[in-house]
Design brief:
It is a single chain. 43% of the residues lie in helices and 14% in strands. The chain is of the alpha/beta class and 296 residues long. It has one domain: Beta-carbonic Anhydrase, Chain A (3-Layer(aba) Sandwich). Helix 6 packs across helix 7 and helix 7 crosses helix 8. The chain is built from ten helices and seven strands. Reversible hydration of carbon dioxide. Keywords: Lyase, Metal-binding, Zinc. This is Carbonic anhydrase. It comes from Emiliania huxleyi (Coccolithophore).
Length: 296
Amino acid sequence: GVKVEELQLIGAVYNIFSGEIEWLGEHPEIEKLCGREMPMHRWNSTPYNTVQSWDNKSGRSARAVNAIRMMEDGNTRFVTGRWHYKSPTGLDVTPSVIVLGGSEYRVPIEDLFDVDPGRIIVQRVLGSVAGMQERTAFSSIEYSIARWAPPVLLVLVESSSPIIEAAIKQLRGQYLPLAPIRVVLNHVMVSALRAVQQAEKNSTLTSAGQELLITQLATELNCLYSMELLLKSKVVRERVLSGELELHAAIMDSGTGKVRFFGEHPRQMEIMRAAELRAKTYSTGLSATLPREDWG
C-alpha cells in the first residue's frame, strides 16, 4: 500500500498525562525503504504553498477555456446582482461543465454561475469530497463524463465550510461526532491534519492569524484531496490524459459568493502515474505484486 502510494504510514506519540497527540508524519527515508521514488510522498510531506502558485488557471483546450469563461462571466453577474432566474426551456442542452460542490452551500450552484438550465451538471456532497469509488456520487460523475463528455470537471469548495470547521474541532478533541458524521469528516481530516501541522510551525503568527491560516490551508488541501480521489478513476484519468477533460479547482468566498478559479492540480501527472501503477499492481487481485524492475 505504501509503495504504490495508496497508503500513508504516519507515526504519532500519545502523551498519557495530557492526552495530547504529537504527529510525527511519515518516515523521512520512506523512499529508500520502498526502493523507488515517491513524488506524492514528497508532496504530502513538504509545506504546502497556497493556490497562487498553480498553473493553467484558464484552461488548456479551447473548449475548456470557453467553459471556464462562461462560468466566470456568470459568477460576475451573480456577485454584482445582475443574475436572473432562468426557466427550463425543454431543449436538449449538452452540459459544458460538471461541478462537484458542497451540499452545505446556501445558494444553488446553478445560480452562482448564472447559467441556463442544463449547461452544467451539479453533484453536491458534504465537504465537496467525491468519496470512494463505486459509491453513488463518484459513479454519477463517471457516468456524466462518459455520457456527455464535458471539457471541464470542477471541484468547488467554500472558503468557510462548516464541514472543515467540524473536522478541525474533531482533530483537536473539541468535538466528538456521531458515527454517521464521522464518515463525512474522515475524508476531510486528511486535509485538516496537514493544515494544523503546517500552521502550528509558523511561530510568527498570532493565535487569530494561525486559525485563519489553518482554515485557508485546510480548505485548499481539501479541494486538492478531492481532485486526487477523482484522478483514481480510470474514466477520469483517460479523459484527462487524452485532453478531452480538464480537472479544475475553484474556491467560493462564503461572504460574497465570488468564485476564484485556480486551475489543475499541481501534481496531476504524478497522481495519475501512481494510480496507473496501482492499477497495474492489482490487475490480478489485491494480493498481487509487481517485480522490482517494474516499479520505475
